[in-house]
Amino acid sequence: MARVTLRKGRVRPVWAGHPWVFAQAIARVDGAPAPGDAVEVRDPEGHFLGRGFWSPKSAIPVRIVTRDPQEPLDEGAIVRRVERAAALRRQLGLPREGTDGYRLIHAEGDGLPGLIADVYREAAVIQLGTHGMKRYEDVIAHAVGRVSGAKTVLEVASRRAQEREGLSVEPRVIRGPERKRLEFTERGFSYAIEIELAQKTGFYFDQRENRARIEGLARGRRVLDLYSYVGAFGLAAARGGAEIVDAWDSSAPVIAEGASIAYANGLGDKVRFAKGDARRVMQKLSQDGERYDMVILDPPKLAPTAKHLAKARKAYQRLNASAMALVNEGGVLATCSCSAAMTEPELLRMVALAAKDARREATLLAVGHQGMDHPTLPAFPEGRYLDCAFVRLT
Hints:
Layout: E1 2-6, H1 12-16, E2 20-21, E3 26-30, E4 38-42, E5 48-54, E6 62-66, H2 75-91, E7 101-106, E8 115-120, E9 123-128, H3 131-135, H4 137-148, E10 152-156, H5 159-165, E11 172-175, E12 181-186, E13 189-194, H6 208-217, E14 222-226, H7 232-239, E15 244-249, H8 252-264, E16 271-275, H9 278-287, E17 292-297, H10 309-324, E18 327-337, H11 344-358, E19 362-369, E20 387-393
Parallel strand pairs: 1-4, 9-10, 14-15, 14-17, 15-16, 17-18
Antiparallel strand pairs: 1-3, 2-6, 4-5, 5-6, 7-8, 8-9, 10-11, 12-13, 18-20, 19-20
Helix pairs in contact: 2-4, 6-7, 10-11
């Protein structure tokens, strides 16, 4: 097995539990590993730190899978981790009555860096983001289908992973019958989403607990849901007793799908979907004197890496100041960031600055994060990517 030796001064994060070995941390590579081969990671004195799969074109050439010197990286290791991930979801009560859509495997948090798997009742969607995971795709598909009961396992591509790893991935059915829609329930809501409209691995399961919080705050409020996708936040607000929900997204097919889902759940008269760019929508609503008791702002990732953070801060601040201008006195802004580089302290500082720009007083009610079926490692801050601040404005 090839050996990767780290530079002096670059050992401590990996030793402490961070799963990524960055290219600049590597002193030398002994052997000639091919993409996807298992490699050992050692410190400058030769002490064993872990094993992972080799990704020579990536800025992260190794992602640690095991820290047990006796455990080989083979099919058995992959299957054991899939089974362990399924056992954790059962402990978390997933699936359960009213919720049969959930994340089964969350990459580093489940000891399988480069692998994401979501379950949609009788279908599972996997994303293979490294050469090592791609090499075991058939084993993974079989194990995921077995532990989840999914009859169909689909693979979706990650553009970023393909660029990072030099992978070539086409969306396809790995096993089982073809499916045109992902059908599932979440907290009693029924969803059916065309696969062509699915985002990433299909749906934003990570916001489950934050949607529940929105539902608890919505009674009697006029609600604006921006970047709504198929309107999951808006549906939660409507069931929570919102007076009306205006849901906006820039995709006409997504809006149509959201309206269909709302009617299927008996909320078609409460959630009004419309097509529009969020920035322009907020500008127009402000000019028209429209105001809401709750605004939900869940934009796409604006800071994919730390180097994008400075620019992203300004964009987030402008978006949030515009959203705050639409909130009635005593109303609530729920503002989210799915960028790991935008940490919770960064997000809250941005909210404070946006409030200054909007000439509002902001009081923090709560901060939500990704659901427990999206676990991460204590030494891996990059895994804690989702923050949602609930702010009262006066």
